[in-house]
Amino acid sequence: MKKSLTPGISLCLALFPCTRVAAQLYNVDWGKNNPDSVLHTGAAAIGSVGDLWNTTDPEANVLTDLVDISDASGTASDVDVVWSDELQSSVNVGAIEFGSTGHNALMEDYGFTAPGTTATVTISGLEANLTYTLYLYGVPDGASQDTTFTVIGANESPQTVTAGATNDDNGLASPEDYVIFTGNTGSTGEIAFTQTGSTFSASNGFQLELGSTNTTPPSAPSLVTPADSASRVSVFPTLAWSSGTGADSYKVYLWESSGTAPELTDPPTASGPGLSYETDELSPLTSYSWFVVSTNALGEAASDTFSFTTSEAPSLPFDLLLNVDFQKADSPTYSGAAVTGLPGDFWNTTDTESNVFTDLENLLDSTGTPTTVSVLWSDELQSSTNPAAIEFGSTGHNDLMEDYAFTAPGTTATVTISGLEPDLNYTLYLYGVPDGASQDTTFTVIDANEGAQTVLAGGVNDDNGLATPEDYVVFTGIIGASGQIVYTQTGTSFSGSNGLQLGLIQSGDVQLEISSTGSDLEFRWNSRNGQVYDLVSSTNLDTTPDTWDVVPGFAAIPADPSGQNQLLDFSLPASTRTFYAIRDYRP
Q: Is the pTM of this model over 0.90?
């Protein structure tokens, strides 16, 4: 399945209240006809003091359609808002604790859908071919409810208002209180969106800002990465381009260069409003071509065509990799790579029904193959979940970092990984994102000469990946005669751990692979955290590699956290007969 384009969203960056004046702004508050309800006025995410808000003000739980609503200045219009019957209304004064207290009147009343149902809202009577920005507000009635909005018929990716937002006196926050869609009203002058939730869903209102009319076709986008004629590109590349003036959406065309180039009338590889596209896995060592087309209601324009060549397929840096996600029963299961691993890797899950972990036996490895390895937990380790905790880790790893195993203050939990083969080299990645910025978590491997290491609290949100020591720590060693690894977990107050990865390598020589690309050599070898490596060479095999000379500039190379080191663009030696080896040691 092709991945969707990453939305390119423009946000109002001013501190609340935002004083930017819209070209035309419509506000709708899901106001309930209730003595305790108050109609919202003024600004929300955008707008000005005194702005008018239209209200649904239903007599019962069913929302009535709005006809000829007024804009923010109070001027009547031809704009209508129609709701499907799945959207019902309710009020909960307590719900405002999940939004901004300065916007209680807006966030208190809400339109909800029951579990398993989807509501549709249609905004019609708009001028055709206008650019728009749509703010959809959704504060749940409880911290366990997420609400997903999807603008239909507009190539927009679904967006979710994240449950569990805290009371924010300084203003509304995205995505805890609202999400934003941008696009064009098209030839019909309509915008329709759907609303659904993981259990119930909740929406509180919307703001629709209309901009300028597109009067000309868009300009062509400019391709950015991969650069034209790039080589050794990942088999999981992200294609990126800069925007075309006046473009509402983009079509991406990607094909093997040996094939026939597509026509603009052919179905695209992907389409949407974003400025990047994450591909599926491509074939290794293969040439690909691609271009992007800008579109709007009046036409389209194609970019230049670029080409690139992929690298070898990624390989696992271990002989065996075991993954465990500390997960609660109703939470999404993580899959794929974390600090190490490959796309699609399998993760075992604790999947606790209550707060106490049950032991895991016969874990499956990252390929889904059964093993003899088990994980046993002491009773001090309990499970919990907090969607807000992911703000301390990488948003690309939410399903891994959201659930966690914790210990209470003053207690220490012990985790035993058993059933391992003795004498194997191991690399143990322990993930620990705290539930709050004041909590540090200390891990100690207690049977393998390893010093204690601490995951530091307060790590920032990092879209580019997991970082050490904010998100994880790494231990390396050799499995002893017991065939097990035992570690403890404790914290400055509470402690939190989110999962583990255990990579195993047969003891013995480092596996060095050498390949050539034209006049250059490439070196790759498996590495272990804590080790350093020398690249050594000799022009004959009369001596052993431990006596060979270090290649200048390639001494004490640190191990890569991924477990796989590589040296690229290494010039061929002057001698026609040169042998290379990797020498590893602890500094």
A: no
